[in-house]
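Category: protein sequence paired with discrete backbone structure
Discipline: computational structural biology
Format: plain text, a pair of labelled lines
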Amino acid sequence: MIEAFLSHLQVERRMSAHTLDAYRRDLSALADWALQHADAAEVSALDSEQLRRFIADEHRRGLSPKSLQRRLSACRSFYAWLLRHGRIAVSPAASLRAPKAPRKLPQVLDADEAVRLVELPTDAPLGLRDRALLELFYSSGLRLSELCALRWRDLDFAGGTVTVLGKGNKQRSVPVGSHARKALLEWRGESAAGNEAPVFPGRGGGPISQRAVQVRIKQLALRQGLYKHVHPHMLRHSFASHILESSGDLRGVQELLGHADIATTQIYTHLDFQHLAKVYDAAHPRARRRKGG
């Protein structure tokens, strides 16, 4: 039955080999547990209490909350498929919840580091392009995929905005700061590109690849003396964190980033609090540690 489900994922859902392997591992673990602990030859015979015991046993075995969430997600998909095909009357996984994984806070550049990165010299080969690319990333908080897909027609220099197609094919307009507009105009003047051309073309003339941008930003960060692991999403995180720190407008940051759920944006409030906590620890007389204490 598990193999039939995996075949469905491969043929009808067109899932990647990597994802299929993950599903196979998770469901094989469930089948092994069912044989050893529930005397069930078929996982379709398990009830919600047995499934809860399976998750608890995996947790005791040392699986991380994130791995447990993935394992339970595979179970939910499998039992939902069985339910749709009339193999079971009710899904035993529908009401189960895995332990919450601690959310990893994104790494950001501070304001001085961000400025140092984007204000790189433009006299090097592709210097104008690199400056425009970095300025736009930090000015508008674009996703990597959104930046790579940009055409010149998407930029409104008079209005100071850029229109992008984000996740779920949702279109949004984002402000473009004056430094970014200046850098983009200088780059466009050098490239002599028409409205339909990619803003950042690759070697074949089409849009630059996401991998090429990732590699280039890492190189430029090192050139500018930043020894963090700088990547495109770090610039998006830095944009969001700095805007929220200055404005306190969480809803506004949600709109700028194109997040469907404000819970996704709320992670930046934790970053802002961390910054405030550091300021407090450094400045408040009653927070300072005594030397030698």
Notes: The CA atoms of residues 29 and 119 lie 52 Å apart.
